[in-house]
Amino acid sequence: MPPPVSWSLLALATLCCLVPRALAKGSLQQDSAESDADHQAHLTCHNLANIITDLAFAMYTEPSYWSNTSNILFSPLSITAALAMLSLGAWGDTRSLIQETLKFNPKEAPEALIHGCFQQMIHRILQTGHKTQLLTGSSLFMDKGLRPVATFLEGIKHWYHSKVTTVHFQDTKAARKHINGYVEKETKRKIRDVVQGLDSATRLVLVNYIFFHGKWIDEVQAMHPVQESFHVQEKRAMRVPMVNHLGTFYLHRDESLSSWVLVLHGVGGDTAFFLLPDPKKMGELERRLTRQHFEEILRHTGTRSASVFLPRFSISGTHDLRPILGKLGITNVFSDKADFSRITRAPVKLSKVRSPH
Fold first, then answer.
1. Which of 87, 175, 290, 312 is most open to solvent, judged by the fewest CB atoms within 10 Å of its CB?
2. pTM (2 decimals)?
């Protein structure tokens, strides 16, 4: 992920042109201070991007939580953004656990700055979505009987573009229908039935979703897919629509992963990494893969002529993240010890954390 661009550079450039000559000397000192703040913001956002990536690999490399016979799909940004939103409403040990898992250190970077980095990342995705089919969003569904803390509502709306809706959770069937209908509408019917069942004790539902549809091969070529064999297992293949393109690509041989890596830049600035391990090296690839590998790949990948075959595919799924979050250290949010008193004064705890994509 490229380092985020500072959002205050344009404002500084505009203000410097309006400073009277008599204030020029003082303005230089002020600009220097603002530059330091801008540098801290840039560094914080860059570090946060690395933290999100590292957490993604920490989650992915927990084999006991994923099926070894099906595809894995999850969005580390969606998951960490949802946890960061919860941290706005958490207090005491609950807040500390979430911050420690996300490696937030208020002594090094103010909390508002960290949430501002999430705001910038989400804004960038929303801008990219105009060029590609990329939809993301979050919504908080709150029982009508709860009295939310105003600062929490203001925070999730400001930093995370989150919408808040009141629901009568006593009528579980109607509440489930309302939540699923909302997400289906927001994702243009791409994500359905995000909530399968609700307990009558439910008082809050936080939904964070993402949908992506990208084009990685020349659109003209993609219009004419050919049925080819795609190996889903060592001795099992299936016929799928395959797009073939002969051209120059960013290819890299990573001996430490025993894999070939294809880097494709799609419409809107999206980047995809396709890793093809040597025979019987998939397990080794999954165990060794880290953020540093991707950084090395981007630094050393050169262009080569190649004939690339890519299947047209669609992956969707909803994962229960509770065991994974527990492994990462977030445990008491699911117990009666959970303290979300900055969301509502009523005692609430997490019961489920599900990731729909």
1. 312
2. 0.79
Tens digits of residue pLDDT in 215-255: 665 554 555 778 888 887 778 888 988 888 888 889 989 99
Give the type of residue at 30.
Answer: Q
Residue 266: name the closest of 308, 217, 305, 233 by CA. 217
Domain boundaries, the chain: 63-214+316-356, 226-311
Residue in 7, 16, 86, 79 with CA at minimum distance from that of residue 44: 7
Cα 13 to Cα 166, 243, 343: the distances in Å are: 43, 46, 38
Quick: pLDDT tens for 105-133: 888 888 999 999 999 988 887 776 555 56
In angstroms and rounded to an integer, the radius of gyration of the C-alpha atoms of the chain is 23
Contact 115, 41 (CB under 8 A): no
63-214+316-356 and 226-311 agree in CATH topology? no
The 3-state DSSP composition of the chain as helix, strand, coil percent (nearest 5) reads 45, 25, 35
| C-alpha closest to that of 9 among 28, 29, 44, 37 | 37
Collect all residues with Cβ–Cβ distance below 8 Å to 9 and sequence separation of at least 6.
38
Architecture of the domain spanning 63-214+316-356:
2-Layer Sandwich (3.30)
Measured CA to CA in angstroms, residue 190 lies from 177, 183, 194, 239, 282 at distances of 16, 9, 11, 24, 30
CB 338 within 8 A of CB 94: yes
| Tokens of residue 299, six digits | 């630094």
Question: Which residue type does 351 have?
Answer: S
pLDDT digits (tens, 9 = 90+) for 53-78: 988 888 888 766 677 777 777 888 88
Give dist(CA 297, CA 353) in Å, integer: 33
Instruction: Return the SS3 of 190.
Output: coil
Q: The domain 226-311 belongs to what CATH superfamily?
A: Alpha-1-antitrypsin, domain 1 (2.30.39.10)
